[in-house]
């Protein structure tokens, strides 16, 4: 059976679409809606957690949670995106989960209040209130990137991909990175990769 990825590109599945494109993996993409299609009996039989992305490998193994899937794919491939040693492995995990715990929820609040999406009212004041909370993690990222090109090594890795995958939403929310020049440069370098463009073109 082919490798299958469930999840539309407008969801967190973009992270795994990007990873699969970086690795050149042949896969079947099922761009299901995270709001409706994940509640069907058919999908819940694949992933009882009812979330995307969900990856089904060629041998029928099922993986979910975008950070876990991407770390798995990188290590399975063993190429330059993968951790080269135990230290890089720990740092890739650190930055991936840091993004999820320190940035993602707050940034989504900014996005939803800015756009009036996902049941949120359009409220510029609320959006600014949540955006102010991002200053702390943005400062952490800026300090780290001020003396290096990439997050954990002298090359683009799964850590960069996982963390940078949040920033297209930041752009959609109109968040200005002008006060964080090292971060802005890094984001541009990550999001200018051809694999990200290919992933973004998917439904």
Short description:
Helices cover 55% and strands 7% of the residues.
What does this structure look like?
The chain is α+β, with helices and mostly antiparallel strands and 203 residues long. It is 55% helix and 7% strand. It has helices at 13-23, 41-46, 66-77, 86-115, 124-133, 135-145, 158-164, 167-172, 181-191, 194-200, and strands at 3-6, 27-30, 54-56, 62-64. Strands 2-1-3-4 form a 4-stranded mixed β-sheet, with helices on one face. It is globular. The relative contact order is 0.14.
- Kindly state the number of beta strands: 4
Estimated structural class: alpha+beta
Q: Rough shape?
A: globular
* Tally of helical runs: 10
Radius of gyration equals 17 Å
Low-confidence stretches: none
**Portion in beta strands:** 5-15%
The secondary-structure element order is EHEHEEHHHHHHHH
Side-by-side strand order of the widest sheet: 2-1-3-4
N-to-C span: 22 Å
What percent of residues adopt helix (DSSP H or I)? 40-55%
- How confident overall, as mean pLDDT? 97
The description of the largest β-sheet is: 4 strands, mixed
């Amino acid at each position: 059976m082919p490798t299958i990825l469930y999840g539309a590109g407008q969801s967190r599945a973009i992270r795994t679409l990007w990873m699969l494109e970086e690795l050149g993996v042949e896969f079947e993409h099922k761009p299901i809606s995270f709001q409706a299609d994940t509640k069907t009996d058919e999908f819940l039989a694949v992933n009882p957690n009812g979330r995307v992305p969900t990856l089904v490998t060629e041998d029928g193994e099922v993986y979910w949670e975008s950070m876990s899937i991407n770390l798995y794919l990188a290590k399975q491939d063993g190429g330059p995106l993968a951790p080269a040693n135990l230290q890089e492995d720990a740092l890739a995990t650190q930055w991936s989960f840091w993004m999820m715990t320190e940035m993602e929820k707050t940034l989504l609040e900014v996005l939803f209040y800015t756009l009036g999406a996902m049941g949120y009212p359009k409220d510029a004041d609320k959006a600014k209130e949540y955006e102010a909370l991002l200053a702390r993690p943005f400062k952490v990222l800026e300090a780290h990137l001020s003396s290096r090109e990439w997050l954990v090594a002298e090359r683009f890795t799964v850590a960069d991909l996982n963390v940078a995958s949040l920033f297209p939403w930041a752009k959609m929310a109109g968040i200005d990175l002008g006060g964080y020049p090292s971060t802005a440069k890094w984001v541009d370098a990550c999001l200018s990769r051809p694999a990200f463009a290919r992933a973004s073109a998917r439904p």
